[in-house]
Amino acid sequence: MDRLISLEPSNVVPLRLEPGEKCSGKLILRNVMYTMPVAFQLKPVNKFGYTVRPQTGIIPPLLTVRVEVSYDLPPNATIPESYPYSDDVFLLHSVVVPGAAVKTASMNGSVPSDWFTTRKKQVFIDSGIKVMFVGSVVLAKLVSNGSVDDIRDVLEKSDPSWKAVDSVTPDGQTLLHLAVSLGRPDLVQVLLEFKPDVNAQSTRSTRSTPLEAAVESGESLIVELLLANQANINRTDPSAWGPIHLAAGAGHVDILRLLLVKGVNVDAVTKDGNTALHLAVEERRQDCARLLLASGARFDVCSAGAGETPLHIAAALGDEHMVNLLIQKGANKNIQNRDKKTAYDVAAEHGHTRLYDVLGLADTLCVATRKGDIKTIKRVIQNGVTLNGPDQNGWTVLHRASFKGWADITRVLIKNGVDIDARDEDGYTALHCAVESGHVDVIELLVKNGADVEARTNKGATAMQIAKSLSYIGIIRVLMDSSQTGRMGSIKKRGARGLAIRGSFDQSAEPLTVN
What we know:
Immunoglobulin-like, alpha+beta, Serine Threonine Protein Phosphatase 5, Tetratricopeptide repeat, rod-shaped, five-stranded mixed β-sheet
């Protein structure tokens, strides 16, 4: 830099290039002399295409002058061949002019040209003034090319009155959107250094924010960068989906976890009224569904359209794993959608027979068994219910029927292939239950059909030992007859988990007097 004039903010002429606008920029020249006026002349080495106003002038001591520079692009060109720095440079001539009359500091043509050529004067020449093209067109091109250093340089040199980092491309994207679409965390990082509007929406049809675009693309590192810079984590109008919905629907569980840590509303709805859990279920994203449920997502929210819960959706898809997950977490199987259908009804409508038990039939079977409702039991058996599933207490329906003394129901269950020696968590079979409650007719029915009279509970008790401890003489005879005739069932694999219920005994059973 010469010793008479300084350039602000630097020794660069920034020319802003925008579609349909004149390519121009400004340069501030400051006289660094304390007492002397300084004359200047600014001209391009390549005169073609450049216009400088004022090209010459006189600057009073310590004052400034603003110079405007414009450039005419060649016909049909949208961007110069060389960018952001042009091959062209400007020469700045300056000379001290003591006693010069200064009417105006920037009057074009007020300085004779021979002031800068006479040998009697000390003329300083700065030949290092570069031409830099800035503007949205240039920045978009640099981002597309991944030119990190050039992007930073252009943003630093751009006029601060124009927030260059928020430039919008001709197709409606901000520079952040463009960097996200390229999957370049390094570009996002350099843009974030200049404090862009991280929540700006594109003018495309989706109207997405950079965060929404990053989530949809599964760019977890970019998502983390945006979240660290206060990107909005919830859906903003007119976006159809928010970040949590995009993550859940696409199965981006790592991104979903980041959003949940940041405090995203786990039950936020899309524009059409679905929660993230609805979308995770619909797209069979079990990991995302599990994470949402662990984070407190409500499973009873009905969608705005069909009024369906996530369980309705899983039932319609026949997704057995998802149905089981939702029910384990407490999903209500009795909620009806807009068509007055439960999840069971929806599964039946789509022919997903494997879901019948877990969605309704098994519950119906247990209730009917407790009540002795043999008609309902026959109906649900015809509908394909699994007979050996445990209830909330770990008992199969045969345990329950035997304990209650429902001989007719026991007979129906045996006829339909129930596991006669299924065990509960304490090792009790249906025979143990029938003996404990003193139902002789049920005991006879069980042993006649091969129940294992030698089966032992977890504490080692056989049915005979239970009968003796309770002094049931009639039951002892039945068990002894069974043992003598060889009617012993094979020992089965242990039954399902649960709590065995020990009830009151049938007082009509004949007691055995123990001496």
